[in-house]
Specification:
By secondary structure, the protein is of the alpha/beta class. The protein has two domains: 195 residues, Rossmann fold (3-Layer(aba) Sandwich), CATH 3.40.50.2000; 198 residues, 3-Layer(aba) Sandwich (Rossmann fold). The protein contains 18 helices and 13 strands. It has a seven-stranded parallel beta sheet with strand order 3-2-1-4-5-6-7, sandwiched between helices. Strands 10-9-8-11-12-13 form a six-stranded parallel beta sheet, with helices on both faces. The longest helix has 21 residues.
Length: 405
């Protein structure tokens, strides 16, 4: 069996790697190739297009600047589909690019499975029509999404569970483990740790790291014992981030941690975290945090005019009012972020409010033992990747709509 995959950003690369690992267990003879990064390469995928170099962009204006690069990546992926004629194409997130690729696959008669639905419930609901035309099966990560797509005319959507529910134990940090991590990261018994998450792409880090460092400096004026922890993903050279810290005169009280974002969350006392996947990770870990999102005025106004939801953080979309969001130029100041961080570090009742809401979110994403998706033989920690893998290797295009097993 020949399987093509398209994962255009770091989180998609990691999600895809977990799915492909399961595919290899179910179908060891499969040949798998396509676009991805280091995570997919680690599970034996032939990444003929390196997403870390050729596809990873952020922001409205950055997408415009990178249109040529993205167009070339799309053309190369289309050529691969034509030349190698895979049995199925797995599209992981990276919505607009992958929907264009799904259109090309449809023309070539290649079956498509799309993992992680676009947020049509938030904005641009018209995308559901394109899924009806070009996508054979859609694996949704939130339980309300299949009904939303059905109301918009697309029937082949199935809730498979959130990828994080494949292993909720990874978000659990007992006191002994937490203490070991804090010692490893240089956090003393009388010190506090503030997690600083500027993002997983170079552009994000360049835009947000100076702001986060400035906020931490403000925090340290009131609580000198606070240190910063910054996770550095594999897609960003750590020496570049260290150089930035030196320029910001912050290397003495901020530690960089390579490729261990969950450990940073587990070792910290509070966080300043960019919107995205890490918001949900922080909630599942039980780390009180502030959400930040820095967009240009153009993209911010497009969202304001077109979006059907008022929240930027997925945590607040699932459970409104859970965390504070800082997105406007007026609110994205070191002083405002520091004030909120100090509340999370010092005010125990304020912390407990967030932690209680986080438990509701955890319950929302955790499959019920009575769910039709589960059976006594299912391994809970691999349920999501197993279901998506089944959708990939099955020749039945209607598998995604069968939730009665």
């Amino acid at each position: 069996m020949k399987i093509a995959i398209s994962a255009g950003d770091p989180s998609g690369d990691e999600h895809g790697a977990r799915i492909i690992s399961t595919v290899r267990m179910l179908c060891p003879e499969a040949t798998i190739f396509g676009m991805g990064g280091s995570a997919l390469r680690s599970v034996g995928v032939e990444t003929l297009i390196d997403s870390e170099v050729d596809a990873s962009v952020m922001g409205f204006l950055d997408v415009i600047k990178s249109l040529g690069t993205l167009r070339r990546a799309l053309k190369r992926m289309t050529s691969l589909l034509r030349e190698r004629a895979p049995d199925v194409l797995l599209l992981v997130d990276y919505q607009d690019f992958n929907l264009l690729l799904a259109k090309q696959a449809k023309r070539l008669g290649i079956r498509t499975v799309f993992f992680i639905a676009p947020t049509v419930w938030a904005w641009r609901p018209g995308r559901a029509k394109s899924f009806q035309k070009y996508v054979d099966a859609l694996a949704c990560i939130f339980p309300f999404e299949p009904e939303v797509f059905k109301s918009l005319g697309y029937d082949n959507a199935l809730f498979v569970g959130h990828p994080f529910s494949d292993g909720l134990t990874q978000f659990t940090f007992p006191p002994e483990k937490r203490a070991l991590l804090r010692r490893e990261f240089g956090i003393g018994d009388d010190e506090l740790a503030l997690a600083l998450f500027p993002g997983s792409r170079n552009q994000e880090v360049k835009a947000l790291l100076p702001l986060l460092v400035a906020a931490l400096k403000k925090v340290r004026q009131e609580l000198p014992s606070v240190k910063g922890l910054v996770p550095v993903p594999s897609s960003i050279p750590q020496d570049e981030v260290l150089s930035s810290l030196k320029e910001l005169d912050a290397e003495d009280f901020i530690k960089l941690v390579s490729q261990r974002s969950l450990d940073v969350l587990g070792a910290s006392d509070a966080g300043l975290i960019k919107s995205g996947t890490s918001n949900l990770q922080a909630a599942l870990t039980g780390l009180p945090f502030v959400m930040i999102y820095k967009a240009g005025w153009l993209f911010r106004n497009i969202i304001r005019l077109c979006a059907n939801v008022k929240n930027y953080s997925i945590v607040n979309i699932i459970r409104p009012g859970t965390v504070r969001e800082f997105v406007t130029e007026d609110s994205l100041t070191p002083e405002a972020l520091a004030q909120e961080a100090l509340m999370l570090l010092k005010n125990e009742s304020y912390r407990r409010e967030q932690l209680s809401a986080f438990q509701e979110i955890r319950d929302f994403l955790t499959p019920s033992t009575n769910s039709p998706r589960t059976s006594p033989t299912d391994a809970p920690q691999q349920l999501v990747s197993h279901r998506v893998a089944e959708m990939i290797i099955s020749n039945d295009k209607n598998l995604s709509t069968d939730s009665s097993e």
